[in-house]
Amino acid sequence: MRTLVDLGDAQARALDRLAKRKERSRASLIREAVDDYLRRHGREGGDEAFGLWGKDAPDGLVFQERARREW
Q: Which domain holds residue 32?
């Protein structure tokens, strides 16, 4: 899929220098950067990691009552 991205002049120059040094295209470096960003910040549908237990969480009230019985 093609996507239009506006870069600042300094960003474009730095990216071009890096692409030349690594003998890669600017587009391949941008794809790699997007992949890295998605790995670090979660992909679409990141609900599987939400909260302490994710989707396997016990009912909150049941958990609270069980924990208080231990006191």
A: 1-44
In a domain, 50, yes or no: no
* pLDDT tens digits, 2-55: 889 999 999 999 999 999 999 999 999 999 999 999 888 876 655 555 566 666
CATH of the domain at 12: 1.10.1220.10
Instruction: Taking each helix axis as running N to C, give the angle between helix 9-22 and helix 26-41, from 0 to 180 degrees, rounded to the nearest 10.
Output: 100
Per DSSP, the residues of the chain read: --------HHHHHHHHHHHHHHT--HHHHHHHHHHHHHHHH--SSGGGG-TTTGGGPPPHHHHHHHHHHT-
